[in-house]
User: Fold these one by one.
Assistant:
Number 1:
Amino acid sequence: MARYIGKEMSRVEGIAKVTGRAKYAAEFRVPNLAYGFIVSSSIAKGTIKSIDTREAERAPGVIRVFTHLNAPKFRNDPQDRSFRALQSDRIYFNMQPVALVVAETYEQARYASRLVKVDYNAEKHQTDTEALLASARDPSHGRGTRVRGNPEVALREAPVKVEAEYRIPIEHHNPMEPHAAIAFWEGDRLTIFDKTQGVYEVRRHLASSFGIPEEDVTVISPFVGGAFGSALRPNYYPTLTAMAARELKRPVKIVYTRTQMFAGHGYRPYTIQRVALGADRSGKLTAIIHEAVHNTSSFEEFDDNTTGFARQVYACPNLRASLKIVSTDLHTPTWMRAPGAVSGMFALESAMDELAYALKIDPLQLRLINYAETDPESGKPWSSKALRECYLLGAKKFGWEKRKFEPRSMRDGEWLIGWGMATGVWGAFQAPAAARITLRADGTAHVVSATSDIGPGTYTAMTIIAAEFLGLKPEQIKFELGDTRFPRAPLEGGSMTTASVGSAVHGAAMAIVARLLDLANRNEDSPLKGAAASDVELLDGRLQLKSDPSRYVDAFDLMKRHNLNEITETFEARPSREREDYAMLAHGAQFVEVKVHSELGIVRVTRIVEVTACGRIVNPKTAHSQEIGGVVWGIGMALQEATEVDHRYGRIVNPNLQHYHVPVNADVLEVETIFVEEDDKIVNPLGVKGMGELGMVGIPAAIANAVFHATGKRIRELPITPDKLL
């Protein structure tokens, strides 16, 4: 029986965060620090005709002003097409960096940045995805269209069909911590503190940009104040920071302003989807056609696999799922929490609700009718799937049986009540990852891996896993992350960190156990003689037989007898060959109550029940927090979030937290999150699946479906604002 896995535990770094001891990228103390401030373009496309930096250079405290005219050129890397600033006079998007002012203080740099004068040769730009649909094309890597069966014929012959278009605006990550970096050089060696979800990715990016060996770059990122995709790719500021530091031969810090964050990393792309569903009169799906188009930039391709997960949700013999992209004069989009999945499932799950009403079948019943017992895409069995249990438990907790079918049939005075539901789905990913454990003879352990913790509780989860398999108390474990001097780990994205890095920590702990057993069995009268490593376990300093705990040796005495102060093992965990024989997904069901004011069109999400099946839960406390966070983000996506672009100028008009609306405490009422645990021995040694993305996947669709039930109005364009309901 597990001692720590599955038990609630507070964050091991929690006190450090709330007392200010935790250091974020911009907070490291480095002597002789200079401050950089980015000057942004005011056009969306064209070239710089002239740039006058003389007044800025004369301003108090200014050390240097970098532009495309005096900044060194970075090396081109064919594998890395990401934007690098100050490399030419070409303008690709509005608010693109055109200069970097470096001064003795932040205030001096910011003031001088306003003195830089830029004249442009503006060219005709296009930032409106709707106007560019005729130029939509398949992504070059070939993930565009997937077909099974004959969906067009099946749709034409279906006795019941629905077809609709759904739209999602550009949305921006708005993490609490602005992106920032501090860089300094010691000879040819670069050290940089950066806000990132992957220190090794930043290291590779910087090494290729400067043409130096990766081993000469150290990237440090112990704490990240929220990211969820905005720090997955190396953004343009780390190269700027490192370039300025090298040229000035002193440390330099750059921190984005809140406004600069709207052009300083990616965003969820503007997405248009068409969904057509065909079914027989019993509700059985006979055809699914799901087409998506979203924007990318003019200089780089990005696609978020919008229709990918939707192919695996329902049993349907005929399906066509396609994704096309169009080039716009905007910065490149990027992954944003539940990328592709939440967008694709908003359209599919809204369409399923429309089909339920066309058939006059309860929306939950329609999903149960089309439940996929095996993966409809590959035909493989699921490694585990408890979605049916999620549906039934969620319906019971929510009181779904009391729902009246007809729209506008439930009221509370002036408020129309609506109940909606949807399905969530996400991949059960695992990537190669390594961890190093040092077990000390004093009964403590040091565990390291170059992963990240953007907030989901990686520090705590890895401490729990290490404590579980080393047989120590959590307070005897010190886990560190976010440093390229530690063993390589994948990006913290895709909800795969616990599966990947957790498996590495487990493997390193098992390697420690094997080392101790080898030491024990060098003694002829060892009580563990003949035992294999899989037969023994560490518990409270005792290396003991699982089947007979009375047969044991004291692990720390054993180390001392062999003059070992510590034992160190590094382990790389990789996805198993067995995974290839199964389909692996995490699933969830969302039930939502909304109240819509009958006169004003105001929507309040009053109650949500979310039930999730994602394997084994390592720490229920932070897991529930993750799911609640996903729900809150889903509320924002459904009702509030939209990046507004004035297409006349190709410029974002709400790049701040005053005008870009996100949910606040008053928007979040009753949220209940429940887990249905799965015993999955295939997915990875710990049996865990990711949940960070999954928590929001079905929420926008469930809210939209609830709004329809309340009002009888089907809103197919997010966000659902009062004007659309009046």
Note: The radius of gyration is 27 Å.
Number 2:
Amino acid sequence: MSVSSTSSNSLAMSGISGYDFSGIVDKLVAVYKIPENQMVQQQTDLQTQKDAWRDIKSRLSALENTLTALRDTPTWTSTKATSSNTDLLSVTTGLNATQGTYSVTINNIAKAQTVVSKIISVNDTSTAVDASVNGLKVWSGEGSWDFSIQNPDTTKSPFSIHIKSSTSGAPSLSDIQNAINTARAGITASVVQVDSGKYQLSITSNQTGLTNRAKFVDTNGILGNLGITVDSSTGYVTNTYNQANASTSGGVSIAAEDADFAVNGLSVKSSTNAVTTAIPGVTLNLNNEDSSKTVTVSVTADYSAAQKAVQAFVDQYNSVQEFLATKTSYDKDTKKTGDLFGDSTVQSIQARLRGMVSGFFDNPTNTFTSLSQIGISTSADNYGTDAKISFDTSKFTTAMGKDLQSVANLFGASYGGVNPVTTSTSTTKAQGLGNILEEYLHPMVMYEGSLDTMQNNLGKQIDDVKQSITDFEKRANAYQEQMKLKFAALETTLAGLSSQSTWLTGQINAMNGQSSSTK
């Protein structure tokens, strides 16, 4: 809020006396408003402090967020896997992957069953399948254009496929295709043009493996008339497609198969080519088969996730300390101070954070008990002002290789069955940097925590000062009007005295003139 200036024009004095009473009143009001100017500056200072604490909370919240990864076990148990032949086999790792080297031979990859109809001669896929041309006599009535596909869950009813013609006559191949796909029965139908005016219906299981091959119930002989023979007792298609007989018979063109491969000489079967059960925590993606080649899979520790988490913490920690240093700075040359110069709370946060990262920790696996042992070091320069830390990734990698569990526990993460204390009690203290820092930071940055309370208190002080300024402004306006009236009255009095003085001077001059004429 700015202090309004008093306009000399508002006094509207005649100035006959020759005195600048308007200027005098302006100066008097300006002096009167000195306390208000001080309050305005106080309001600005309080708002600056509130904004600074808001930014501090934001940075400390971001620092707290980096602790999540440090305390998370998967950060430290990450692994990576490589394949010696990605054309045959690609690999990925997940949680708790077992490290080691594995030899894999792929005899057969899993395949999805495809069943095709015999060749249907029609102008295009939208043309009705004419019984006189194709011998599909079952299209004689609307109610008989049905068959079903067995639900993979055999306790449930089969998926009913009702084929409805888009015209008044027999259905087209597109009608049959759409009826199958609309049912969402675990198979996908498509119509393939194999020659001019000749088409075949292809039905493919959506999943690979023997257990996922389609089972049909051909109640009305629809499939049979398409050249697909179904065993009424098993529901499986029994005839194998032969290109030489395509004009009269369809059948299985691609047989369903399970993947057949070996890991370290042990035979493994799988209905899918994405195998998650052979090696714990590792997904083997079978891409091609070649029993004459052996693929070597190596599963090793991956330190990149841990290094990334630590780097994120170091970067944010340094950002916090740099910001705090700026807010508490003092330039001896310019005499300029930071927004929170001399604030004991900020100084306490600076010192506490520095003390935590540079101190020793109660580590349940005590190979490492300080951050400096694993590559995170502080500087003794400008203590309390420049409190940044550095991260030696080479030293960190060496420490991880020496005792990964101890490094994880040092940051408060559970590893190898060892669980650091996460929360302090009356009898135990939190263990590991992540847990200790979490206990310190969270009460400050949480909703309605100590930093919110501090900002709210500053907000209330700002509101109080604003009200004081408003009240003072009213008094200043009243004082201005009072001075205006007083000096206006003085101007009137002086103007009257001036008039009397002029009259008296005139009288004296007149008398002197008469005296001179009589001589």
Note: The chain has a mean pLDDT of 86.
Number 3:
Amino acid sequence: MLHRSPILSALLAATALSGSLASGEARAQDQQVRLDEIAVEAVRAGPQGTVTGAGVATSQNSSATSGGGGGPSGVTGYTARVSPTATKTNTPLIETPQSVTVVTREQLNDRNVQDVNQALAYVPGTSTNVFGFDPRFDAFYIRGFSATYDGIFRDGLRQSAVGLAVPRIEPYGTEALTILRGPASGLYGLGSPGGIVDITTKRPVFAPFGEVWFQAGNYNRFQGNFDFGGPVEGSNGTMAYRMTGVVRQSDTFLPGASDDRVNIAPAFTWKPSADTTLTILTEFQNSRLPGTAAFYNAPNFRVTRLYQGDPGFNAFTQQQYRIGYAFEHKFTPDLIFRQNFRFYGVDGDFPYTQIDNVVGLTAQRSGGFFRESLQSVALDNQLEGHFRTGPVAHTVVGGVDYIHYDWTRRFGFPTVPDLDLTGVSDFTRFRYRTFIPRPALDSGATQSQDQIGVYLQEQAKWERFVLTLTGRHDWVSQSTTSFANSGPVTGSTQNDSAFSYRLGLNYLLTPDFVPYASYATTFSPQLGTDANGRPFKAATGDQIEAGVKVAIPNTNITGSFSGFDIVQSSILRQDPNNFANQVATGSIESKGFEAEMTANFAPGTNVTLAFTHLDVRFLRQTSFVTQAPIDGNALSGIPGNTISAFGTYQFPAGSWLSGLQIGGGVRYAGTSFADDENTVRNPTVTLFDALVAYDFAALDPKYKGFRAQVNAFNVFNRDYATCQAGFCYRGAPATVIGSLIYRW
């Protein structure tokens, strides 16, 4: 482990003594049935939960109370008490030895989230605006590390992504997002050292329900959502179904670029007994997106309003599909077996154009066309046991998981004519369309990867101490072949193996005030060879984290504070003796602290606050621009300080504004460097969001279930750009979406 800052070490030690709140059991806010807290386990006992009223019953919470991808439970408003992501068990979040945030369905609905980046916008430790507005990918950073390719999980299984074949998540089809910050290799194997996002799919519930959304917004946005289901008639309460879908047709502020989508996700649950559950999850999604989201960059880090995409060659079409299941059987209350499986496929055509240079009144352009396909299989087998040895209570979970993917790419580069800019004085109104024939796809590559992991975790609880010990060994095999211009095929094979682990200790100072500390390691294989033809060794890393988790007794108010130090080593850098090659000797350090508070004060009244201080620097690295060392430089595009807050207020029944809900949020991103050479800084950016909604049942009970909602993002239309690694991206302008919702 590399040397760490003594200042941070002091901070980490201090966190064990810090904090100002304490927690207790969530209080029931009403005695009626709340639809968004019906659990699958309630099949024969009837629906259970607390009510918030028709205007706030925002979705069906179908999360199973068991671990293994079942999703968060103990949800009230924006708060959640349990999520299996951190431990693959039902350990309360306050007793887990890492930072965890849950974005619940009610929060997703209130903010009318349209993609994963929006879902994470109010989560501490995340950087979601590094690449500006880009509807093509869920691209974000956690604690300064990219999570796009190896940090996204779906129902506890890693979502493989390679090249341009990156599966997109439809937020309306999700029940919740759980963000586990810090290394997760001890349980999940390959993953971002900054953390992972585990997305829980909506699942069937054993109570009839339904909702439809009709939406319209600026940029000719029209969208319909539907979600309905319940028990299968005649099944005697053993079967349930769910059908969720989205249909969208929309332009964007990128000239001539679409953001169209069709998504449908049927699901089915069979529960023959209280001890056995099988849930089948499926999805098909078709998207039409822009081939590029970039604007031409002028010298000196100036992003112009000249859009690089040509509407005649800019339709990125992608189809994705998945089918899988979640199986659980309880041999006894203390011995549980789970098996989660998923097959995923992604196919896409990716045409694009780019402006390489502007000379006089001529824009010189180039382009490319990529056709990619990705098929992935993921399987996780778990066995969880509970037992005691004297005064110590043990929760042990062990398992074997397997992930395989096959990826193919074929590509070619067309001849793209130059663009005549004569007479153009306002690029915001400049429109053009060029006929560009598709090129021959005479180059390509294929890649396959197999990962097998064996893991074991012990959680031992003795009096006020909770000790978490997690260990895992992975074997990864990866083979790649490529050819160019229909030439000879070249190939390589690489094998890696590594042991990852986590040590964590929580101390229940009170049941609601819990200091903790943990140490965790991570690894990630790296494709390629050095100048001598030797494969790169896997990137490895570790994290020290300490903090305190709290909640106020008899309320739904929770909070946490954490300090962390992550070092990732053996990352690729330019070979100082051969600039045409790379060596795996670079390293990077991310350190800082995070604070958050989440509260549900009353039905429809919630608040979430987050603060992050982040310092991400290269310990050893070489500039790809100057070929000079940039040791000690900050990683570009990652804000040093971020502050976010979002809240809603539901006017109570009986008031003259009964039925009205208002809300708003602020997102502040501090300054960051625009390039890794640290020559120019990005300015600070503050954005505001807003919510206004009305429940028509307040006018007359016969309108029960009808709700109107208006969401605005970047309300004041802040014009901003962010630069990362020397390239600048435009942020999204003001966006307004109106929704008419009916629930039954």
Note: The chain is about 5% helix and 55% strand.
